[in-house]
């Protein structure tokens, strides 16, 4: 900060209301006194004037209308912050790092993030926080601080009065400083690929493929809650990771596998009905051992990847879905016999199976 700005601040802080007291005779000092010594001497002179001025005292032993030390320090911090923003009117926003540097140059003290958060908790309108979008940088270089304006114009004095009034009210009620206000959620610009690589180990730790994992146990909500708490990836990337993980989990979920297998078998029922009718008609039979039916259907299948177990499941599903047309019974030797009913309406059975296959997604 320039020496001109420091001089203006010292004059503004040293100015008091009403008529000024005659200046004291300053002790003789060398003409070559440094700037820090001058600032320290002027501060000591101001403190002497304050201590000498008589004022009423309240029951707690401090001047009437005066704030407690921690309240007054918080208000003094805000006044200096307003001065920093006032001397650089073209810089409406400052990073936390930049503001801390300017504050230290101004008064030689530090202002922390907790001080700013406490100021905003005492008077929410006195400060506003934002981010530059530099998610890979430290917070002090990404977090921005701004003093809100009113109708596009600065209103430092209005914010000061409101803050002083709120602090005075808290002090009068005997309450302590308010708790820290929350910072806004820090956005992240991680891409989908970066997010998936970043959470790969966590997803694997909750993967249902692991031994001892309960089938069908959803872990995406746990993963999402973990990363939302730690503010590591954006919500959009988290949703994409959740969808990808749910899709992967369903591939290995036993219940989902069974449901998918049943839907696939239902979609094959009309074709199986036609093939079964053709087989019995070609042999001119109404009943056949089930152990002979399955190999015959296997030899006439179009999809060579279809397994025998799938054909058996489809036959069982056909018997359950159309009991009026076919049934499986056991003979005296315990052999399972598949028999077709001669009096059933095959067209109605075919329409019924078509509806069942269309209902399966």
TrEMBL record:
Pfam annotation, one family: CDT1_C
Domain of life: Eukaryota
Claim: ATP-binding is one of the keywords in the record: no
GO biological process, one term: DNA replication checkpoint signaling
Keywords assigned: Cell cycle
Segments of skewed composition (Basic and acidic residues): 42-51, 183-196
Residue ranges of every copy of the DNA replication factor Cdt1 C-terminal domain listed in the record: 258-328
InterPro entries from the UniProt entry: Cdt1 (IPR045173), Cdt1_C (IPR032054), Cdt1_C_WH_dom_sf (IPR038090)
UniProt GO MF annotations: DNA binding; DNA polymerase binding
Annotated GO CC locations: nucleus
Region of interest (Disordered), residue spans: 1-63, 174-196
Biased composition range(s): Low complexity: 1-13, 26-35
Family stated for the protein in its record: Belongs to the Cdt1 family.
Protein name: DNA replication factor Cdt1 C-terminal domain-containing protein
